Amino acid sequence: MRTRDLSYWLFLAPVLLALGLVVVVPMVLGLFYSFTAWNGIQTGEFVGFQNYINLFTDERFLDSLWFTTKFSVVSVILINFIGLSLALIVTSKIKTSSLLRTTFFMPNLIGGLILGFIWQFIFLKVFASVGEAVGMESLQAWLSTTETGFWGLVILMSWQMAGYIMVIYIAYLEGLPNELIEAAEIDGASTIQRFRYIIFPLVAPAFTVSMFLTLSNTFKLYDQNLSLTAGGPYNSTEMVAMEIFKTAFVQNAFAYAQAKAIIFFLIVAIIALVQVYINKRREVEM
Amino acid sequence: MRNRWNIKVEVLGVALAILWLLPFYLMFVNSFKSKKEIFLDTTSPPEAWSFDNYIVAFQELDFLRTLFNSLLITVVSVLLIVLFSAMAAYALSRAKSKISTFLFFLFVSAMLIPFQSVMIPLVTVFGQFDMLNRGGLIFMYIGFGASLSIFLYHGALNNVPKSLDEAAKIDGANRWQVFWHIIFPILKPITVTVAILNIIWIWNDYLLPSLVINTTGSETIPLKMFFFFGEYTKQWHLALAGLTLAIIPVIIFYFFAQRSIIKGVSDGAVK
Q1: Which of chain B's residues have a Cβ under 8 Å away from the Cβ of A215?
Q2: Chain A residue numbers touching B137 (CB-CB < 8 A)
Q3: Residue closest to B197 by CA, chosen among B124, B268, B129, B122
Q4: Could you identify which of A188, A237, B7, B27 might form a hypothetical disulfide with A149, taking C-beta atoms 3.0 to 4.6 angstroms apart as the criterion?
């Protein structure tokens, strides 16, 4: 097949059309609109960088960006710690291994929206009634403060995503050469030494993959944010994706929301490109 | 020594698994209770296993129709994504040229774009052409799903020797026949991965359908979940029954396709 054959273009036509109309055209239009006073119907006048300049003094946007960053950093660390621990548990010689894998992975198949609603029930009702029964004040009124909203989201995401990250670590752990680990064992290396000097360096690529996967997933979080806290109390647990949505469809500030969306894109793209860079560098080293 | 260590690990694993299932247990047992019973006690099993909540939730969700909508949109979208992405990846992998390299780069870089960055123009443009309906939604899923799918197919196709194409061509098959009868069947393992990744994403997607589907009667399961949460007073007993109903199809799917699902998700992430 050559690129000048008709068949080449016929094979590509459906996806080119879909990707063009669904991603490329809206992206180009969006970039253009972010420099105008677009209101969804009329393009409005050209305002240059005004929308972008306004962003820097928009407290609600900056707060959401800061909240999202804090949430992502804490979640990435916790999810990877739990995910790796689960992977180490299920890859050791135990009888219930496959049953445990199935269980830990299960939350990933269910939509974030539904999971958020389930946890809303747990934080609001179950925490309250258990707190009352055992006399723990700290279990009362969850999700009604910024702090409990934050940790509520972190708990929800750790529970959901740890099983996903576990699956990735398993893929690397099961690819480890058994002879190497056994040889180390015969030479008298302890469990901790084997982990530190043999397993850890060999599963290092899994860390890059998992870290960036969790980072990009938590940074772009929307569904769980919406169903668990809906951004409350007083928008203090509102993450960037939700802030952009509300600017566009609640305040009807389309062009301004689009400028935020472009900044959001740049941050996400930079995260992804850093990952590509790190992977390339590692490949060179190996 | 070795054995005792393994038993400790096993006990820890099982304890964690019970902790992991606790949210589902709480959802399940409370979905059978009355409003008053939930108010009094959220942790023990219900006094009586009454299906009253389920009957109401089933009707309020218009469950059969909602389930059908979710199935229709997911199945049609995934079939088209699989077919079109495999075709495109095949063309890109067989015609090595600057154009192919550029197009492949375009598809891969589209993966970097978060949905929120194109959401607003997408909805306004499709709105102007009267495409905010199920057909439009399926078309959008093809656009958003194609990138990763092409990437995965392209990787798999690099391991399918070109001599296979040539042999079939000599036997008189045309391009489409070569693709459909020879190449596509060979790609089956990666097709399973592509299908599973897209099924999970589309089935659970909330934001896009919430913007695209506006007519009553065509909502998918995630959209209907708001029925119980829109009001000021939450009807937890009904909501929990509704959430349980919404999860049942996923559990059935997981039960039958567990291995492929875990393998698919792991391949999709690692590659």
Answers
A1: none
A2: none
A3: B268
A4: A237
